[in-house]
Prior knowledge:
27% of the residues lie in helices and 27% in strands. Strands 7, 8, 9, 10, 11, 12, 13, 14 and 15 form a 9-stranded mixed β-sheet that branches. Strands 2-1-6-5-3-4 form a 6-stranded antiparallel β-sheet. By secondary structure, the chain is an alpha+beta fold. The structure holds N-(5'-phosphopyridoxyl)-D-alanine.
Amino acid sequence: MASIAYVNGAYHPLRDASVNIEDRGYQFGDGIYEVLYTYRGAPVDAELHLNRLTRNLQAIELPSPMSTAALLTVIRQVLRLNRISTGLVYIQVTRGVAQRDHPFPAPPPRPSLVITARRKAEPPDDISTWTTTAITLPDERWGSCDIKSINLLPNVLARQAAKRAGAYEAILYDKQDNVTEGAASSVWIVNRDGVLLTRALDRHILPGCTRAALIETLTVPILEASFSLDDLRAAREIFLTSATSFVKPVTRLDGAPVGNGAPGMVATALFEQYIRRIKAL
Ligand code: PDD
């Protein structure tokens, strides 16, 4: 069965689904996106993701292409047409099609909306099969990383550098040597004193929906504060969170083991808590 994509009001087989070459997403990266996981037909943290989408549209002065309720209907329809119950949904909104010129086109074109879905494995049961590796790199992104912009060139280059080094994620740090986030994930540590830390929300990180969902339901104390590259290197535990990785321990950083090289107690507790939450949807 061919995959089906939603593109600007119609459902097309993926091979025929296309956008105009003058789409401002293609020309300028003038758009935003969302990625969410759906478990057995239930979109996970849907409200958080769709609220962030709305906030991001406002941030780049783009009118919503449709209401949140209508968006959820299209998401369910894309899943249904693709016969996907557990997978990923990708949503992209751009400023639409106009002759190439940097300022916003006037009158504004209709925003372009694309929604696709891809089958994914069920959440893992065992954290020991769900570990990863990372390298550290300077954060070379722009000043508004709180916007989930489709301009992902620095993230792409960072992930490629990680891959070349035989790792998966690139953990980024700012000019003060404080950790910002991963190229496509939020970063958490349990520091050498046993304190659970993740950077406070600011313009230099994406407000992760998985991060927010976890913090809301945490039963252990958390400090939302900056931590340095040295803290990262000395951490007992490092783990990543995102819609696609849930809670994923980093067991090697820049080639060296993190802690004893196995998933830590805090990561394991949060992993179990998050997976339980997904499965209860
Ligand atoms: N990435 N930080 C960045 C830079 C991200 O790209 C992501 C998600 C996150 C975690 O956010 P959330 O918990 O809402 O998924 C943090 C998605 C999965 C992606 O680009 O594929």
